Amino acid sequence: MRPANEALIVIDVQNDFCPGGALAVEDGDKVVQPINTFMDEFPVVVLSQDWHPAGHGSFASSHTDKAPFGVINMPYGPQVLWPDHCVQGTEGAAFHPGLRLDRTQMIVRKGFRPEIDSYSAFFENDYKTPTGLQGYLRDRGVGKVTLVGLALDFCVNFSAVDAAKLGFEVAVRKDLSRAIDLDGSLDAALKGMREAGVELVTL
């Protein structure tokens, strides 16, 4: 077991991000069993869960004549338009059935405000509306976090960079994450994480 000040944050290992899902990440399901094993190393385990209302503003279907993976400007900045995914209460929003929940001490739901998306487990995409995760981790005495999950170049990336900005020591297990890689997003994410001081680990 790792020291009491270390936490594992498992990002969005949900059905819609796994093969067969609405926004499937290639081999997304391959991380499930290794993550399950990895959980046993940590005294604190947190899961994040994308949790969108129907008709969310980040869905391409919510905008006339817009296609998935296009970009529009929202009040908080550029927003990628996604296929409808992780709609509250649907099977797509549920965690992958193989993911262990018994070691989980907190679930952070994000993206539930209809007008704003949320990639990071710490902040909405306006970079100022907190999810409450920082407070939970501080109250638990956590100073170091390791992130795994889906997708490496979006929600894992944004969460890791935000954690570093908040003063946590941060590592990302690349081998326990998978990427979408949308128009070079993976290389950009890896570069940004390194510049933010995130340790990128592959075992």
UniProtKB/TrEMBL annotation:
Q: Which GO-annotated molecular functions does the record name?
A: metal ion binding; nicotinamidase activity
Q: What is a biological process (GO) this protein takes part in?
A: pyridine nucleotide biosynthetic process
Q: Which UniProt keywords apply?
A: Hydrolase, Metal-binding, Pyridine nucleotide biosynthesis
SUPFAM superfamilies noted in UniProt: Isochorismatase-like hydrolases (SSF52499)
User: Keyword Hydrolase, does the record have it?
Assistant: yes
Q: Name one Pfam family in it.
A: Isochorismatase
> Part of which pathway?
Cofactor biosynthesis; nicotinate biosynthesis; nicotinate from nicotinamide: step 1/1
Regarding protein family, the annotation reads:
Belongs to the isochorismatase family.
Q: What is its EC number?
A: 3.5.1.19
Q: Where are the transmembrane segments?
A: none
Task: Tell me what this protein is called.
Answer: Nicotinamidase
Give start and end of each Isochorismatase-like domain: 7-202
Q: Does the keyword Metal-binding apply?
A: yes
